[in-house]
Give the backbone structure.
Amino acid sequence: MLLVDTNIFLELFLGQEKAEECEKFLQKISDGELRAVVSRFTIHAIEAILNNSELILAFLRNVQGSLGLNVYETSIEDEMAASMLMNKINLDFDDAIQYYLAKKLGAEAIVSYDKHFDNLDVKRKEPLECL
């Protein structure tokens, strides 16, 4: 199982440079060929960044219809644990919660373009590495 970071969805929905490879990766998850998880925290962050009702609706429909994607309901306890990790692993809160959940859920990797994950004990992969 893979944990999908915020920037993978944003790359696609904002039409950025690597949108095409993110689309292929997310399609494999949607088809059930890959198993992945995204946190409710990540979903809220994406909604806030997109800040466009049509994009948000398209994103949420994509998540809802994805056969291989599970949504993990982050709890206050999860967020507290991530905040306690921040200084120890030298990550901001957004990245600390991704790392914490990857560890907690036993993810084989965090799929992200964020190189802050490179020096941790959970592997970081980019979408192309998963195709």
